[in-house]
Amino acid sequence: GELADAALLELAALPQRRRSVAVATPASDPRQLLELKCGEERSLIEARAARLACRSALMWDELTGEKLFREEDIPMDVQAKLIRPAGAYAVNIEWTDGHSSLMSLDTLEALPSVQA
C-alpha cells in the first residue's frame, strides 16, 4: 500500500543522507577545518568552534546549565586528533587539549560554516 511505498522511498534515500565528519584543512590555512558531509552537501567548520560547542558535563553544569570554562582557556589552535563515528547521529572527537567530546551531527551542522 501507500505506507509501504513511502517507507521504501525513505529507505532508498538513506544512503544519500549519510552524514560524516573529517579533518579537511588545506595546507594554506592555519586553522584546522572539519568537513561535514551530508549526502552530496559539504560544509566546513572551524575546529575551535566545534570544541567550544561541546556540551559535556566538564564544560557545562548539567543541573543549572552554567558554563564551567573560560573560552580563553581553549587554545586558539586546538585540533581534533581523532574523530570516530558514534552510531548514525554523533561522533566522538579527541582534542589536542586533552578533552573528549561526544557531539551530535546536528550540533556540528548548526555551527557557522567557513570558507577554506
Q: Choose one word for the global shape.
A: globular
Mean pLDDT: 86
Low-confidence stretches: none
Radius of gyration: 17 Å
In short:
The chain has 116 residues and is α+β, with helices and mostly antiparallel strands. The chain contains three helices and six strands.
Outline the structure in words:
- This protein is α+β, with helices and mostly antiparallel strands and 116 residues long.
- It is built from three helices and six strands.
- The chain has helices spanning 2-13, 47-52, 105-109; strands at 19-23, 33-38, 41-46, 80-86, 90-95, 100-104.
- A three-stranded antiparallel beta sheet has the order 1-2-3.
- A hairpin with a 2-residue loop joins strand 2 (33-38) and strand 3 (41-46).
- It is globular and about 55 Å long.
- The mean pLDDT is 86.
